[in-house]
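Exam review. A common question shows you a sequence with its structure tokens and asks you to describe the fold in words. Practice with the pair below. Do the first one on your own.
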Amino acid sequence: MLKEILSITGKPGLYKLVSNGKNMLIVESLIDGKRIPAYTKDKAVSLGDIAIFTDTEEMPLGQVLENIKAKENGAKCSIDPKADNDQLKKYMGEVLPEYDRDRVYPSDIRKLISWYNLLTQVGMVDFLAKEEAEVDTKADKETDLHDKLKKEAKAVNVPKDIKQPKQQTKVSNPASQRSTNSRKMG
């Protein structure tokens, strides 16, 4: 679900991808439902591609949103996105204790909280269900492909006692080659 939700630099709120046009995307605002074009000059980022820095690795945004949902029992955030920096850091520490305090800024936390509130307001609360199903399906397809290739490799094995035809080499006719020596006219 998060792959279709976009954040566009310079435009408030979040947008749902509706269609692709020539050199633009057609997006629909989650706030008011208006459709607008997002051109190639606009920086549009899918929420599915965003991750939060932690002390060990990067955590996908969907997992962080699920942590907020679990803390808030599916309701809107109990903290205001406009709260002071210390309150925001404390809240983020409760949601994601291992977040990197040096690389995750209060402005990032504000944006995260406002995105969560907006998504819950419009009823988009399944942040991971579809993505995990896609990953499982992809892994199953890769396993099936690997097994199929193994079977095909066994079927193609040629016994060693059958002689393979020799490769023919191309022989050039020396008489047809022109001499590269220069001739004197005279």
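Now try the second one, then compare your answer with the model answer below.
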Amino acid sequence: MTQLFPDIPEPSELSSIPGVESPEQWKDGLLVPPGEGEAVWLLDELITFKLGMVETNQAFSLLEASAGPGGGPPLHVHYQAAEAFYMLDGAITLMTGRLRRRVTQGSFVHIPSGVPHTYRVDGRSPARLLLLYAPAGHENFFREIGEPARIKVLPPNDHLPDMQRYVQGLVKYGSEILGAPLGPG
């Protein structure tokens, strides 16, 4: 078979590409296969890192977050980064500023920096969100404060985070807790 784009490896050749060792190796693109990426537990969420400041030259970071029914972060604000997310699975109640909205699978949300927000997972199934922060850097909060996930599943019910460390980490990364998580709907 003749390749139309000779510089692009055939899929069979991709498995022989050595591990990425420097940002220079990402100049032509990067593939993160399904299920791959470092993962941490933070509060009641599983956070999986897909791309960060190194891979995107500080442009944005991309993470996958999973949270169980009723789960979600406290009301908070990011002063130095905008947040956006795409709902992969499940449904949430989202509060941004003074607005509450139901967000379902396939929805995209953009939250400008400086806008308070939180969410609660609705229903009996977990929710999965693809999170984007711009500019990059906020992923380091999750990496620094989170506990390495022993397996890529939601944290155990008895997983209790160090809230003082959580709050200090938010401040370090230009964010702040403003209130409690959303209560039951």
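Model answer, second protein: The domain at 37-179 is CATH 2.60.120.10 (Jelly Rolls). The radius of gyration is 18 Å. Full marks require stating both points clearly.
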